Amino acid sequence: QYDVETALSGNEALWWADEQIFDIVLLDIMMPGIDGYDTCRQLKKKPGYADIPIIFLTAKTDVESLDHAFSAGGADYVTKPFRPKELMARVQTHVELLSRKKALDDLNRHLEDKVAQQTKELRGANKNLTIAKRELEELDRSKTDFLRMASHEIRTPLNGIVGGVELMKMTESIPEEIQEYVDMLDVSVNRLERFSLQALQITQ
């Protein structure tokens, strides 16, 4: 069941369109004042009426008149005298099509909003990843600098210790109890030297 408003002229129909937006418009071609074609064209320009279906009721069945009706923005036509059941079937079809189009538009807007929100979130995540990457690069540089410095600082005095140990090992008159300390020192120095070389290799 539909709520119906009637207009006796094109101008009155345009006035009604200013007052509210209808789900469908049935429009005669021959009317007092402006005809149905011009009324249809002006209706389509009004806010909210671009997608509203307009069905022409016409006694004209020639191709030129029907083409004119569709060119003006009509969605369909019913020839007069019309059968009520046919007219109601056409009305119901176009109202349902409009309803589904609105639902589809709402869904598209929802999806667009969802995509926009996810895009915003992805941009935020990318920004955080960029910051994290920059911080990791800075940490990596700090680590490299530290290892390079540590390797240099260790090797400089280590070379002197290695030389001293080698001289002590070459000395034949070292007491046995001192020789044990020399051997322990030699092992420790060799381990420290390997660590220094590994640190240097890591920095490279």
Q: Your description of this structure?
A:
The chain is mainly alpha-helical and 204 residues long. Helix content is 71%, strand content 6%. A three-stranded parallel beta sheet has the order 1-2-3, with helices on both faces. β1 (25-28), α2 (36-45) and β2 (54-58) form a beta-alpha-beta unit.
Q: Catalogue the unreliable spans.
A: none
Strand content: 5-15%
Total strands: the figure is 3
**Tell me about the biggest sheet?**
3 strands, parallel
Strand order within the widest beta sheet: 1-2-3
Shape: rod-shaped
Q: Provide mean pLDDT, rounded.
A: 86
- Give the radius of gyration: 45 Å
Secondary-structure element series: HEHEHEHH
Number of helices: 5
Distance between the termini: 84 Å
Quickly give the structural class: mainly alpha
**Share of helix, binned:** over 70%
Q: Which quaternary structure do these chains form?
A: single chain
In short:
The chain has helices at residues 10-19, 36-45, 63-71, 84-170, 176-203; strands spanning 25-28, 54-58, 76-79.
Question: What are the SSEs and their pairings?
Answer:
Elements: H1 10-19, E1 25-28, H2 36-45, E2 54-58, H3 63-71, E3 76-79, H4 84-170, H5 176-203
Parallel strand pairs: 1-2, 2-3
Helix pairs in contact: 1-2, 4-5
